[in-house]
Structures are given as structure tokens and as C-alpha cells.
Design brief:
Strand content: 35-45%
Number of domains: 2
Structural class: alpha+beta
Largest sheet: 5 strands, antiparallel
Order of helices and strands: EEEEEEHHHEHEHEEEEEHEE
Length: 295
């Protein structure tokens, strides 16, 4: 069954003083994948940019670059997309083998259809493996256990050992801090799981996107559904990528809309850039609405 969603992602920055100029990178466009098709995606920037360009980055994400030269006290970016999503669950059972074999394949060479997989076994700016992380991960990776079973167990342990607490961390929070304080947001859950998987020699990437805001009757509301969400992709050599959400202790299904992926959050931040001003950002408002399109 295919579900269609309208995604509205709005970000508003307000500044203490006038900003001039400002340079922004925007990653707010859903990707087109085997189980996901982006039918339309429209972006509105206020003030109107003096220069606007789009490109595809190293990871295949659609990125917009915009420059606003006129002095301004606020910046608003609204992206409206319509996306069709199928449940990718069948991909998880296409091939099962012990995790040690997937580890060996990831370390020896690229996957059959994903030559970039090896890069996701390495440390990245926000995800660095450590003996503590590897020790935590090893409890899920018993000898001979299938990769998907080990991944599911690891996601479940992180979900139960760490508390989802909005506002308890920020985009600058280090993995070690989250590991110790044991509460954070979806970004932290994803970074920890990626570090665990990489410490075991598996390729893992950071995936950003959205969750259905209002669940169907009888289905529970998921953590992180009111903002941009993050989860993890793990590579199964010979089969491809399987996505899992440690924040909600489940594999990704048709309630998820994939936006972008990279090594960690620093590769996929929805909005990033540079401003020139003597003041600071007075406020930041982000709202996300994901609604099922009737019919």
C-alpha cells in the first residue's frame, strides 16, 4: 500500500540587528528512492534571495544555495513537498547471514551496488568510536547472530537505556556527553547507534527526514514527529541499506519520509550558513507538519 504525504517544513530566524549579507545551504527536499517518490517540492524564501542555485551533493542529496544581500532582520524558509511512500520492510528479509560476514564485506571492499559504503565505516566529525562505545555495542553482537537481529537488539537497548528529552541537548552536544547523561533527542540516539555499528565494523549512515505527525487511529504517536527526525541506515553487503529508528525502537516503515543522508548530522543539517552582523540570533522557530494526502 502506498501512502501519500504533504510535508511542510518552515524555519524562521529572527536577529537582534540587521544582517547583511547572509549565505544559506538548504537541505529540505525529500529524496526519490526505490520505496519513495517525491512528486513535487516547492521552496519559498523571504526575503527573496539575490542568488538561488541548486545542486546534488556528494551523498546524492538535493541542496539549495541562496544569498540575500539586502539588510534584513529575519529569514523565513518554507518547503512544501508531496511524497509517495511504500513500506520498505521487505528489504530486511531479502538476505540473512551472520553479522561477522557483513562486517568482513564492509571492511574489505565496497558493496555490490553501493560503492560508497566503506566510507560509512570510518569516524566522522560528530561520530567517533571509542572503547566504551564498542563495549556497549558488543552486547548485541553475539557470535553468529544475524545482522538484522543484532541491529534490532541494539536499537532496542538504546531506546530503553536512554531517555528522549527535547531540549536536553543541542546540535553541538558531543557523543560522549550524551553517552554519560543518558538523555537527548533523535540526533543523539542516531549518533550513538552509528558509533556502535561502526565500532563493530559495519557501515552506518545518518538519515534525516520526517515522521507522520498525526498517526492513524489505534497507532501511537512517535517521538520526534513534530520536528525533523533522524534515524540510522546500516549496510547489508549484497542487499543494500536497511533503516532503523533507535528513538522509537523500530525499523523504518511507511510513516517515514527520507530527506537526506550523510556521515552524521553535520552533512545533512536542514539549514546552515553564514551571516554577517554584530548581533546574535534572537530566536529560531521550526515547525514541521506531515499530513496524509486523501486518496
Amino acid at each position: 500500500m502506498t501512502l501519500s504525504y504533504q510535508v511542510i517544513h518552515r524555519t524562521v530566524y529572527r536577529y537582534e540587528r540587521e544582517v547583511s549579507p547572509s549565505f544559506s545551504l538548504l537541505r529540505v527536499f525529500p529524496r526519490t528512492l526505490a520505496h519513495q517518490r517525491c512528486r513535487s517540492s516547492v521552496i519559498e524564501v523571504d526575503p527573496l534571495p539575490d542568488d538561488y542555485r541548486e545542486r546534488v551533493d556528494f551523498f546524492g542529496n538535493r541542496v539549495a544555495y541562496c544569498v540575500i544581500e539586502a539588510p534584513h532582520r529575519s529569514l523565513s524558509v518554507t518547503a512544501v513537498s508531496v511524497v509517495d511512500v511504500d513500506d520498505p520492510g521487505a528489504d530486511r528479509t531479502s538476505r540473512e547471514r551472520p553479522w561477522e560476514q557483513d562486517r568482513t564485506a564492509a571492511l574489505v571492499g565496497p558493496g555490490e551496488s553501493h560503492p560508497d559504503a566503506v566510507a560509512f565505516t570510518l569516524d566522522s566529525p560528530l561520530v567517533r568510536c571509542s572503547p566504551r562505545v564498542q563495549e556497549y555495542a558488543a552486547a548485541s553482537f553475539a557470535a553468529g547472530r544475524t545482522t538484522t537481529d543484532a541491529v534490532a537488539d541494539l536499537a532496542s537497548r538504546i531506546h530503553h537505556d536512554y531517555a528522549y528529552q527535547p531540549g536536553s541537548t543541542s546540535v553541538t552536544t558531543r557523543l560522549e556527553e550524551f553517552f554519560d547523561q543518558r538523555e537527548g533527542v533523535c540526533q543523539d540516539f542516531a549518533h550513538l547507534m552509528i558509533a556502535c555499528l561502526r565500532s563493530m565494523g559495519l557501515a552506518a549512515r545518518y538519515v534525516s527526514g520526517y515522521l507522520e505527525t498525526d498517526p492513524p487511529p489505534g497507532r501511537t504517536k512517535l517521538e520526534g514527529a513534530d520536528v525533523s527526525h533522524a534515524w540510522v541506515g546500516v549496510h547489508l553487503p549484497g542487499s543494500g541499506w536497511v533503516d532503523v529508528d533507535p528513538t522509537n525502537d523500530q525499523f523504518v516503515n511507511d510513516r517515514y519520509v527520507t530527506n537526506a543522508w550523510g556521515r552524521d548530522y553535520s552533512d545533512v543539517a536542514p539549514l546552515s550558513g553564514v551571516i554577517f552582523t554584530e548581533g546574535q540570533t534572537a530566536s529560531l522557530e521550526v515547525s514541521v507538519d506531515v499530513a496524509v494526502v486523501p486518496g
